[in-house]
## 1
Amino acid sequence: MSNSIGGLFTVTTFGESHGRCVGAVIDGCPAGLPLTLEDVQKEMDRRRPGTQAFSTTRAEEDKVEILSGTFNGHTTGTPITMLVWNRDADSSAYERMKDTPRPGHADLTARLRYGGFNDYRGGGQFTGRITASFVMAGAVAKKLLNTLGIEIIAHTIAIGGLKAEARSLAEIKENVPRSPLYCADVAATARMMQLIEKVRNEGDSVGGVVEGIALNVPAGLGEPVMDTVEGELAKALFAIPAVKGVEFGAGFGVAEKKGSENNDAYATQNGKIVTLTNNSGGILGGITSGMPIVARVAFKPTPSISKEQKTVNSKEMSDTTLTVKGRHDACIVPRAVVVVECMMAIVLCDFVRMAGILPEVMK
Amino acid sequence: MSNSIGGLFTVTTFGESHGRCVGAVIDGCPAGLPLTLEDVQKEMDRRRPGTQAFSTTRAEEDKVEILSGTFNGHTTGTPITMLVWNRDADSSAYERMKDTPRPGHADLTARLRYGGFNDYRGGGQFTGRITASFVMAGAVAKKLLNTLGIEIIAHTIAIGGLKAEARSLAEIKENVPRSPLYCADVAATARMMQLIEKVRNEGDSVGGVVEGIALNVPAGLGEPVMDTVEGELAKALFAIPAVKGVEFGAGFGVAEKKGSENNDAYATQNGKIVTLTNNSGGILGGITSGMPIVARVAFKPTPSISKEQKTVNSKEMSDTTLTVKGRHDACIVPRAVVVVECMMAIVLCDFVRMAGILPEVMK
Amino acid sequence: MSNSIGGLFTVTTFGESHGRCVGAVIDGCPAGLPLTLEDVQKEMDRRRPGTQAFSTTRAEEDKVEILSGTFNGHTTGTPITMLVWNRDADSSAYERMKDTPRPGHADLTARLRYGGFNDYRGGGQFTGRITASFVMAGAVAKKLLNTLGIEIIAHTIAIGGLKAEARSLAEIKENVPRSPLYCADVAATARMMQLIEKVRNEGDSVGGVVEGIALNVPAGLGEPVMDTVEGELAKALFAIPAVKGVEFGAGFGVAEKKGSENNDAYATQNGKIVTLTNNSGGILGGITSGMPIVARVAFKPTPSISKEQKTVNSKEMSDTTLTVKGRHDACIVPRAVVVVECMMAIVLCDFVRMAGILPEVMK
Amino acid sequence: MSNSIGGLFTVTTFGESHGRCVGAVIDGCPAGLPLTLEDVQKEMDRRRPGTQAFSTTRAEEDKVEILSGTFNGHTTGTPITMLVWNRDADSSAYERMKDTPRPGHADLTARLRYGGFNDYRGGGQFTGRITASFVMAGAVAKKLLNTLGIEIIAHTIAIGGLKAEARSLAEIKENVPRSPLYCADVAATARMMQLIEKVRNEGDSVGGVVEGIALNVPAGLGEPVMDTVEGELAKALFAIPAVKGVEFGAGFGVAEKKGSENNDAYATQNGKIVTLTNNSGGILGGITSGMPIVARVAFKPTPSISKEQKTVNSKEMSDTTLTVKGRHDACIVPRAVVVVECMMAIVLCDFVRMAGILPEVMK
């Protein structure tokens, strides 16, 4: 099931960039979760393009519709189908580029994978737009987790070479919603905005890093050996277009540490066992420890740039160049913040379901 | 299925560190693959402990037995069951540590997950020893891939803060098998050996980074949106104990690049389309491009150290300290090299099966 | 994934009887299959209510819409989403019956399963209407199988106690499309029509048996031990509401036979190995033999009858009676014929995909 | 995963008739279930061949070994691996029959499926012996269900044309354990024994019907639309070699009933809602109702008969005849009774796990 994720809380996505819609089916959301259209729309609005200078000018309203699975303001336990219709798609450019694959995009690999039958307009399903499906499903997942007290917050920690300074959880909660880049470091935000503006003017793009944090996750979630919390989160995060790296806790930094530095010492605190550091990112042996889950996700720069690039004409098997026109993000990272949250939420819902945990109201 | 991985080429592992055995069942290996015990033993020997100064002194012979699934020197298409018996297990230390979880280990999370019924001796299934199962299964996967011309090579690229210099593929192939650390940089190997010796003498440990490369992988493998090549590889790699980060191609480095730097330009070469760089690590849109797949995996330092550490007595809910005795690796990274290869092989076998690709001899 | 079926050719259904729509997502249909709306509508029209005297008077047009997964008249390899909107739903009766479960329906079990949050209008997802989803998906499956020369034909072989006489394959192909009951025995059809009319006038209903036949299925399909062709077909057929028995070949009749009668003798015929009888129903060891697959499916009488029935008031926990009003089929069997075909087609597509078989045009 | 069944309580089988062993891995048995070797051996002994006149003379001791997943007399939550070694296998006959497929067996279909690489000795995995794996796993499942008060009883209700008369549950519980055929009708047992003896002397075999009953199953289990209780039970039961039909409750009899006869009327009884009849077999809408689950399973006569049969030489593509020698059951039905119980138990464990139900002691 290549377009599904999760074992008990399962999300199946569908749709293409320039087709009729993009959507998702959630199978396995327990009955009795209060759910309104607004719950979903609120998250969708956080990934909307077109609201900021650094973003694509494609103007989709992205009004979510719920087609099944709710009744009297609650989930029914049957599949929840949601979609947004595509309206503002301009496919004219893609006909011209059909045989000249855009570097960094999936044009060529999709053609090879699907024998040339893939919908190449806007990349078909290989489009940032598919993340609208992730967000619809993730919005429901976040709602379910919230009823259990679990909170997920993502924020931008690097754009290009610019890194945000570490901030306390309180500062993150306060600053991120106000930042156009969802970054907790106010000073860095300003510099990042300038950098994005600069590369946009150069017809270029820039990548970055998003950190996702899950708070109040119960200890003891996880299905190792194979279905570890890290592994499932990583699989979900790599489904987000442009992700090339995922790490947890101290991440790649662990390679440079000694065991005595990296091991998180245990201590008792208010009758609970905690760790004094969190190099493990809240996960040991693939199982949650009760400490915050901390994941970091590397996003490559948007491959759509207006600078001339070397490519091939795959029909004539000759070398050529390409200049990509159209409406694109100079930096996808800020719009990806909510997507990271949603993918983390989807995976954690699955683990919560595996553990048989249900909010009181839904029992 | 928490102890299984793969959809068509499925590996299920079983066993515990101090139980009777560790083993694996492969379901979905096509009939007709020539397979001998030596094919599997050869890979197992590469992860054997006890052969080098930096390694644990637990001395398991790890002689693989094949219990089902082969006949007349070929696979039959039915489940292949393999195991190694445990013989040299000393459980005495674990009884004492039962209520004082070792920092950095899964002792506490396993107890929480399994309600205290987990086999805590040697960590139970939360043991480096479970990777013997991965290697048995991976050996079969590598054999299957080899019949298709696909080759997988992993090597150590960092130990502690020491980084190996980049080497050509030819140098990697030549130097790695000779290096006790499976590192292609001869000079770095020597320094790494000294570092390991040093931390061992301190009663400490050190982590590192392994790079896995898959060569001659056909273009067009992958099952996006959700089952991307990156995502499935990452999930498999995070199942290896101690892994805290996984990246592909330019990895976390993409965050600092501009699109014009990061996009891999296309060119024709000998009638094939290639990319002039490989920042994508051979994967675009979750689909293989035909370029080498390059993954990097961060391993944390072995949590078992003989230095005194802060922990708790979980029974009495009091703070205490712990000194871990026993036979442990000061650096797990060299023994993990073959494990990385094997996990990559298992995942690629699954994608190869999904694509319906079979060697001529097996059709 | 409770609302999905299939491993490689996966169908996920959604929707409720009185919700906005019923639909299906197919994940795993290979790219390149020619597919038009008419291909799907044609099958949908065969299950339409309201065209015959014996059928419900709920008048849905059931115009299929394809929301994703096709481009330029072919499948793209990405999820195919299809739906029909609900328009003619009258929910007024259900509010009254909320606490008095209809005998033979899933009213009570659904309430217990979903904690009372289920959409009880029209049975919610426990409705014959969900089979519209099966037909949409099955229509695509039948198209795919047709490109491989595989043909699936179902027909009514019993209504109430009336049994159709056995007919040759040629007669089945000729007579079934002309029969309002999809029955190959013309004389029996007339008697069955009278019986249905009689029970309808009594405010009662009647069951029956449908036989499904799959022709030209390649030998060697099947994934035993667990994923047998019989097992997967049975699972799919039991998903059709009202099915209480499934058998293959000689079916329950095998229990009365001796081995020497039941074993299908082999013989060579035109350079192929065939069996002289087909008591196995085309399946041995869970694997297709190349002979026709023959399945028989028992349907219970529609539980919705207008006769007074004993039930309970589940709120007051008291005994009471119920008379079900509304628009219902006196005999669901004829409308189920296309559904049986479609479920068989979905399952066989999955096995065909598992075997890596693809039509030439799609390679 | 063709050799696995179940989503949360998953059983994977392995082994061949004349290989080293047959076995099973259970993944998903919760931690804390008291489990001894005797719990498993007890069920294994009920399917042992060689103890009765009507049975094969192959004399396997079938002593179960548990290789992983238990510790201190309880399950640990990790995979439980069990096996029995093969010792008394005589493969000499099979070499001769290699190219002359036995009618009614999977010899030919297995060869086609696995390209001739299948282990043809004793049928390889297409052997009644694989049911030893089902029983090992089922024994654990039964133990888990027992802790929840769920009881599963199967019994023989027909052998050849001879049908047992219906007996009360009390009589079934009393008579079945004493009957060499596991039949509750004492008089019928005697006649059945004579019939089996007669067909054995004729070099023939005979089939039959087994009924499985599950008592005290909680209402509300089931994962429709696709994963119905009937569908999952049927899939599991069709995995038992020789099964050609499965029905629930009134089964195929529903086809001859009117709705007013077939609908099970509701009534209150001791503060619970019950049905006054059980034509539904305890399942409505694919969900358990709390009434006993009743399944009936048709077994074909053992295909191994010593009468001469028509077959082909598949190498020379010529017609020939075959007389099967060796040790075979004249009637497999009595030995299948425990297998039916075990398969039902495995499936119900999975549904119990899906519902998040756990015995108090294991929470």
## 2
Amino acid sequence: MHIEKIGIVAEHADMLQIGTRNMQNYPLLTEVGKTGMPVMLKRGYGCSLRDWLMAAEYIALEHDNLGQEQKILLCERGVVSNHTHRATSRFLLDLQVVPAAQELTHLPVMTDPSHATFWQPWVKSMMLASIAAGADGLMLEVHPNPPEAAVDPLQCSSFEQFEDMMTAMRLVAAAVGRTIDA
Amino acid sequence: MHIEKIGIVAEHADMLQIGTRNMQNYPLLTEVGKTGMPVMLKRGYGCSLRDWLMAAEYIALEHDNLGQEQKILLCERGVVSNHTHRATSRFLLDLQVVPAAQELTHLPVMTDPSHATFWQPWVKSMMLASIAAGADGLMLEVHPNPPEAAVDPLQCSSFEQFEDMMTAMRLVAAAVGRTIDA
Amino acid sequence: MHIEKIGIVAEHADMLQIGTRNMQNYPLLTEVGKTGMPVMLKRGYGCSLRDWLMAAEYIALEHDNLGQEQKILLCERGVVSNHTHRATSRFLLDLQVVPAAQELTHLPVMTDPSHATFWQPWVKSMMLASIAAGADGLMLEVHPNPPEAAVDPLQCSSFEQFEDMMTAMRLVAAAVGRTIDA
Amino acid sequence: MHIEKIGIVAEHADMLQIGTRNMQNYPLLTEVGKTGMPVMLKRGYGCSLRDWLMAAEYIALEHDNLGQEQKILLCERGVVSNHTHRATSRFLLDLQVVPAAQELTHLPVMTDPSHATFWQPWVKSMMLASIAAGADGLMLEVHPNPPEAAVDPLQCSSFEQFEDMMTAMRLVAAAVGRTIDA
């Protein structure tokens, strides 16, 4: 997100997303916070839980200043690691951070298994694991024709795969006492 | 496992376990394989999936030589990582390795969330995530009175916690079409 | 560096520094590049050599657009790692990246052993190693009275230590055919 | 090293080497220690400094039991890491561990830049850096005709390269007040 474009984006979007490479771009966090809009804060791919929560504070402070509830979603999207199991996969989905974050913060924690695994055949498994681990949400990348996707064709799911994944997810969510709004 | 003690252990045990620090102790793997007994091969905490499968080959070769089915259980027990989220936790449970291993091998894959997280409050979450991710089994450390445990008191679960965890696990297992034999 | 403050900083400074947390703040890189000033680009602490060189391209493009020589200094300042050897040290100085970068780019490569090690007793060792590894420069944090330093007292060197370190560095530099301008 | 072969090896060798994959093979360490011979203990590639020193204790105890001086050489040979800078390089040489180990132990610390980098063009740089960092020794892999080496052709140095490397090393060693016995 370009800091100068927050205004125009905020006019049209329902939520602002801070990408992994900008998690510690503090002036951007402050400006995004000042809009009062809900913010999804992706975890920096080399950052610790402490780094992440400290970054969230920049947004939380502005929400507090506006006298409103803190509207921040923490999103785990994969971290750099020694071993990612495929040459084309650069990240490892860290699900241990889900209970660890929930131990320290009231903010909801979600995951992004599509970008984390970067390999569609693993997405369903990591999506169901996220829900079972206690994640409060998920984002999934879907494309009508994945092999033709201009960006990230290896990880995006087709409509048919998405339907199957959602069916499975509803069952796991129910098993852990959660419901899906989607 | 001391290589000289395999005989006496094999007389009394139903399965042999190779610990994380011995995953690449190849003479031990060969001797353990020669017993023909089922073997649980824990992943070395700095080792890749390829390292792990190559180690399993030492056992598989001996089972093949005996003309029997390969009886090897792969067990993910946490890997070294940049960030483990608590000062007392040295490892991160790698659940991405579950679908990755299943893509490459017919051997069953299980996890050990107790030793991986080394923090009891996270074990249930990682146990349910393991089952949802597609793991074929689990090991859990349980103690009648965890604060008095001589070893690893931070991670072991009480009988009451175990009962609650098993109840939750049966629900998640059913949601992903698995049943629990325990 | 706040993107809006580049102008005022550029009026007074000889070089602009992009910190580790902003290595992938692309609008900032572009604006910094447009000043035409020399830029020290610190490596993001979770970033690969490829990530680093791709970030440098944002600055290089602007220097090319200005029709001037590319004035970019790459600075290795420690990366996240499994083991950093002290509880207060969060990073590991990656000296392997020095020859690796020099294999791929004509840009000079320097190191920052003070921030990387975060422990003064190790700084001299890593400083001499950097020069011997072929680094083209160094930055060191020095304070008249380290225990009283408002920021980072564990890693900054005293004037006496600095003098000793410079003496040692001149000897190592001479041994590898380099000279020190400082 | 196969534990049953220690006797025959000890008859013919001047020093015993424990490889990275056996650093935590404790029965092997004990048996090797009982010979009273000098031991080079390579660091396990996922192991911490504490893991390494704890492993050395198994050997040290046996040397103490024999009433002799502890003859143990610690050898850093590269660790698993997020980024190793070449697809064929699996490890990163950790030079920060040199001063860190010397802060905690009287045992000499050496490095193995050939196996760590696994890329001959980087070996000289990491070899000189090791000496400048304060390492007490080095091992280098040399082959009369590297492209024809049956094992590890990417990392071994030719006789001509070795001669050039030794010349450079003598200069750096002298600059840091060390001499080379080789």
